[in-house]
Design a protein that fits this description.
The structure is a homodimer. By secondary structure, the first copy, chain A, is of the alpha/beta class. Helix content of chain A is about 45%, strand content about 15%. The first copy, chain A, contains 12 helices and 12 strands. The interface between A and B is large, with 41 and 41 residues. The structure holds a DNA duplex.
Chain lengths: ~350, ~350
DNA sequence: TGCTAAATTTTCCGCGCGTAAAAATAATAT
DNA sequence: ATATTATTTTTACGCGCGGAAAATTTAGCA
């Protein structure tokens, strides 16, 4: 950690007493050089703290070690968490992840894909906006860069899809709610991605399977301020007496949080105790759901499984190339998290 | 959008009928070339969709157009929001922001600074961990790269600091609480950054100024899972009857959210209506605070002002260099947001 | 039309490193 | 010790672009 600054690999090679190509080889894969030379390099590395110029390296490598991570909205703690765990795994695998948030806008998503293209990444993990995405542009991108879709599916795009099996998770919740009380109605907003549609379908299916009449309540609203949509819509629904059941299954946790705020505002007690008149359940196990009042009963997605699965899948594509066959889809199960709201 | 692929600027220059150096000039500043040639380039740009190689550009430019943005914990919506608005402003100013999250760990923060150094950014906007930060390393970094500290101060480091004036905001809240009910006690966790210390001091000062006896309750806990710390600590405080006042001012919103969950758990009604026995206030106007039950009375930080201010300050440093005088500190005022929890 | 200033073209070098091929050296086996 | 194989060194080229200097063209103006 001492000595003067090293300007480039040439100088560093001189200091370590090894030739530059060998040093270059070392940085590409430390195990590819003999142990004795590795030690000499690492010794110099401690004395001089040299790092190869990022841009020169990436310009010359056939394929960079960059991984792009794109989430639709990073201010949503769910995606922040997904991004965080995925980042970690990429670093552990020796790659350099760069995370981008589309901030809920198609323009940003397209812009990000173009930026990513110019980064020539080895691969990309893309949680797309979903319905709002520019299918053509995403498709073109996927043809050039190995891309794994995460969370939100766009039918047929990308080399693989990793997500949650809504047709497993939603029935799990519906059955629980029916078993423990009044069959739920389904509270949703205009779908931003395919998950929302699948959840509605899954709700309807499982209600019918159980011999109940499904009832879907859709409220207006757009953008990614889901809590606000749930709150505003919730107030309207409550005030108009549109609620057909005293159990409400919300399309996702953030919507449920907004709905709970609306119920509170109207003096309606939510929960499973005797003094409560409304049960509310969500979906996703949003990080804040533990701390709502009452705590939110929901379906948890396995962050670890999703991030590990998606990164491993991508690594395979990077190493072995993208197989030409049909897209590989991996759907994980959700788990019921029973708390006190339903 | 048609035609074959362009391999480099040379080829693109040929297609547009302009020389390569002129094209290069255009990409550095479109207004620096004559209008007629600009049009020729932009016409070709539409036909061929060419972008200069990112790595070659950055390798050769004296200074890159990159801006580093570092937040301590991006899964905290407060910082996600700060990062988002700052990103936007950087892009609008013609720079390429890269956002990193330290995820609450010093090791990550140091790692990020090293990564940033190798990116040779034009400047960095750093919201440091605070107390946990490696002062030496941050200091060394700030000497090499124009750095503006945001939100959390590290005394004397960086070229400027942009944040909130806790000695304005906290008294605002204390005075409001005293005016409308019982003087508050102060609920805090082990301080993660200087703001926490300043808020405690400001609370004590303003209580004494108003002739009340300050009372600080500190609960244990570490890490960035503030809600959990507030919840766990809140339960303990409530169960042990440690609360000296029926008004609680929490050091930040996330802590308040946890505390509210604890109060709910113990059947204590929170709010300002007659049937309530506890008032809880927070600080920061966390995006989620509107939707707590009851909605959280808090102090709002002006995201726009902070992000605009910090980016503009940094741009000045990038253009004119960092002045040698004392560090410039800008403190914005917080605003009282009255909701229904206090 | 001629003049001047501005813009562009030509030509060239360099950035720091990946990578390839041939030559030299070191480690291992026989 | 000699043959064999694994590593390293030497040498050299190229990546795509920024930037400088000189030569040339163009635009603006009297």
């Amino acid at each position: 950690m001492s000595g003067q600054k090293i300007r480039n690999m040439e100088e560093f090679a001189a200091k370590s007493g090894v030739s530059r190509p060998t040093v270059s080889k070392y940085f590409n894969d430390p195990t590819s050089v003999r142990k004795s030379t590795r030690l000499r390099i690492e010794e110099a590395l401690e004395r001089y703290n040299f790092r190869p110029n990022l841009y020169a390296v990436n310009q010359n490598r056939r394929l960079t070690k960059n991984i792009g991570i794109v989430v639709p909205y990073v201010a949503d703690p769910f995606f922040a968490e997904i991004a965080r765990t995925i980042e970690r795994r990429c670093i552990d695998a020796g790659f350099s992840p760069s995370t981008f948030s589309s901030h809920g806008s198609v323009e940003h998503e397209v812009e990000i894909l173009e930026t990513l293209r110019s980064m020539r990444p080895a691969g990309v993990l893309l949680a797309p906006l979903g319905r709002a995405s520019d299918r053509k542009k995403v498709e073109a991108f996927c043809e050039d860069v190995p891309t794994v879709l995460v969370d939100s599916n766009i039918e047929g795009l990308g080399a693989a899809f990793i997500g949650l099996d809504n047709f497993q998770s939603v029935p799990l919740m519906v059955e629980y709610l029916c078993r423990t009380g009044e069959p739920p109605c389904f509270f949703e907003m205009p779908p931003v991605n395919p998950n929302a549609n699948k959840r509605r379908s899954a709700y309807i299916q499982s209600m019918e399977r159980l011999g109940h009449t499904p009832h879907v309540i859709r409220v207006e609203g757009q953008g990614w301020d889901f809590e606000d949509i749930g709150y505003t819509g919730g107030l309207r629904v409550l005030d108009n007496g549109e609620l057909s059941s005293r159990t409400v299954l919300c399309s996702n946790d953030r919507l449920a949080i907004g709905f709970m705020a609306a119920a509170y505002e109207r003096g309606i007690r939510v929960g499973i105790t005797k003094d409560c008149t409304l049960r509310i359940a969500g979906h996703d196990d949003h990080p804040f759901s533990r701390f709502t009042c009452p705590s939110l009963t929901t379906i948890s997605q396995d962050y670890e499984a999703i991030s590990t699965g998606s990164v491993e899948t991508l690594m395979n594509f990077i190493e072995d190339g993208v197989p030409s066959g049909p897209r590989r889809d991996t759907l994980f199960d959700g788990h019921l998290v029973m708390r006190s709201s339903a």
